[in-house]
Amino acid sequence: MTAVTKTSVPAARGPMVEAWGIFRRSPSAMLGLALLAVVILMTFAGPFLYGVDPFEIVWAPLTPPGQEAAIPLGTDNLGRDILAGLIEGGSATLAVGFAAALITMLIGVMVGAYAGFYGGVVDDVLMRFTEFFQVLPPLLFAMVVVTLFQPTLVNVALAIGIVSWPQTARLTRSEFRRIRTLEYVSAMRAIGAGDSNIIWRVILPNALPPLIVSATLTIGMAILFEAGLSFLGLSDPNVMSWGLMIGSGREYLLDAWWVVTLPGAMIFLTVLGVSLVGDGLNDAFNPRLRER
Amino acid sequence: MYQRITKQLLYAVSLILAVLVLNFLLIQLAPGDPAEVIAGEMGGANAEVMAAIRAQYGLDKPLLTQLGLYLGHALQGDLGTSYFYNRPVVELILSRLGPTLLLVATALGFALIVGTRLGMLASRNPRGIASALVTVLSLIGYSAPVFWTGLMLVILFGATIPLFPIAGMIDVVKQGGPLVRALDIAHHLVLPALTLGLVYLAQYSRLTRASMLEVLGADYIRTARAKGVSERQVFNRHAFRNALLPVVTVAGMQFGAIISGAVLVETVFSWPGLGTLAFQSILARDYPTVLGILFFSTLIVIIANLLTDFVSRLLDPRLAGGR
């Protein structure tokens, strides 16, 4: 990292480099990045280092952490290895979280971009549509969708995406409304650039900073959604996830705190990491707001 | 003014109709026979019931006729029958609505009162202890899954310090008059409301702090100070009233999310509201009840939005004049 600071010549700095400079100096943002790095490392490298099947019964049920050297974090109510569950459970949660955030951004940016750029009737229709999705209680709607259709990971991600996009759409719309009146957009229009060219190549790149921040926070929200759905037992039952571990262990809560506490702590630390990074990005993109 | 209210009510009605159409589409799009979806897979779906449902909803007729029939039934207050509970869905839902509204209102009230106070306290000194507390609290409130926070409180108050009951709404063994009953419900309400409220307390305190800091920099605050208004008055009246506006707006917009949170919290604490009903009927594949709950909770959100709009206008008369 020290090498980077030495090579950064002021004249060559782009806005992203500058943002990274601010981001790097924020202890909380770096803590968030570190948390995320640990979670991702654990999820991807964990299975190779600790190759225990999370569904396999390995020891006596409800063995507390630290009692057996072979099972460092104890077992759940069926005698399954908690540590193996924590390692395996991350991949489903992270995959659904990222996929849902991607779907959210795709729908939200698309709707918001057209509404904000064209205004008028297009804006009215699209915004009415958005407002309709905003009155649906998100988790409840996702619960219904997942139940009526099959609770596969793809459907879970789709359901979360469908309930989360309105906020992104509103943000994109307001950014597009602001930017479309700026001079460089008029200049592009004057030299004969088409609408889609202006929307995707001119306005969108300039609207990116707040959208990146929003995408980060969306990932955190989607992870919480996935956890909630699988806690209720409405996610894919054949895939281990942190929420599922909490859901199946909650009846033994008072006898075995670790069964519920540990996977919950993983969710908490992951979302904390995501939101610290989001806050850090926000500050990095809006240096003037940092004083608040 | 009246024109505006009429317009808003019409808009609300159109949203309600849209939710019903959505429910209808969900029934149609779900894999399998719509009659089965309406009857619920685990209900007493014998041939007779199925035939009755087909006739009632005109399932052999064109799609638009079906939609018309569905809307007709719904607008007459008939959202179908739960074959799992053997009761009309509307009746079933109305019997569970009270506990959910009580939980949501208590949690929201707690979050608004404590959150705004905390945010104000923090805004007095942007680098002080209260500010740090608000930052930490809002991070925890945002990042911790609400059902997990609830379960952690269960461990704390169920095993370590048994101060509050951890499940249900009423102690059936307890005898006594209405006052005893009310106190008993309040006692049971503490943990669920605290769990749900903490999430929003975190958000509102952070929001209040940010908007107070912004408002305190405004010209009219300087004027107030210059003409000798006490610092206390400047804070509590001049600044707070304006700083409250974004909090009210956000609180109104989040109503759907709060109901979603209530579903999880109710499940954790076996609170006998719409959330536990939703959970149970989803497990039982009792689709009419599930869709009925979706409809009713959307209705609550729509009403809450109308109320928020009204409160914002009270807080800021400028909004009433324009647009």
List strands and helices in order, with pairings.
The complex is a heterodimer of chains A (292) and B (323).
Chain A: H1 2-7, H2 15-24, H3 27-49, H4 82-118, H5 120-135, H6 138-148, H7 153-179, H8 183-190, H9 195-231, H10 242-249, H11 257-285
Helix pairs in contact in A: 2-11, 3-4, 3-11, 4-5, 4-7, 4-9, 4-10, 4-11, 5-7, 6-7, 7-9, 9-10, 9-11, 10-11
Chain B: H1 2-29, H2 34-39, H3 47-57, H4 63-75, E1 81-82, E2 87-88, H5 89-124, H6 129-143, H7 146-160, H8 178-216, H9 219-226, H10 231-253, H11 255-269, H12 274-283, H13 287-315, H14 317-321
Antiparallel strand pairs in B: 1-2
Helix pairs in contact in B: 1-4, 1-13, 5-6, 5-8, 5-10, 5-11, 5-13, 6-8, 7-8, 7-11, 8-10, 8-11, 9-10, 10-13, 11-12, 12-13
Notes on the protein architecture:
The complex is a heterodimer of chains A (292) and B (323). By secondary structure, chain A is an all-alpha fold. Chain A has one domain (35-53, 74-289): Orthogonal Bundle (MetI-like fold). In chain A, 73% of the residues lie in helices and 0% in strands. Chain A has 11 helices and no strands. The relative contact order of chain A is 0.15. The model of chain A is unreliable at 1-10 (pLDDT under 50). Chain B is mainly α and 323 residues long. Chain B has 2 domains: 2-75, no CATH class; 96-320, MetI-like (MetI-like fold, Orthogonal Bundle). Chain B has 14 helices and 2 strands, in the order H-H-H-H-E-E-H-H-H-H-H-H-H-H-H-H. Chain B has helices at 2-29, 34-39, 47-57, 63-75, 89-124, 129-143, 146-160, 178-216, 219-226, 231-253, 255-269, 274-283, 287-315, 317-321; strands at residues 81-82, 87-88. Chain B has a two-stranded antiparallel sheet with strand order 1-2. Chain B is globular. The model of chain B has no long low-confidence stretch (mean pLDDT 82). At the A-B interface, helix 5, helix 6, helix 9 and helix 11 of A face helix 1, helix 6, helix 7, helix 8 and helix 11 of B.
In the CATH hierarchy, what is the superfamily of the largest domain in chain B? MetI-like
Q: Beta-sheet strand percentage of chain A?
A: under 5%
Order of helices and strands of chain A: HHHHHHHHHHH
Nearest-angstrom radius of gyration of chain A?
A: 22 Å
The counted number of beta strands of chain A is: 0
Membrane topology (chain B): Multi-pass membrane protein
Family (chain B): Belongs to the binding-protein-dependent transport system permease family.
Domain ABC transmembrane type-1 (chain B): 97-312
Protein name (chain B): ABC transporter permease
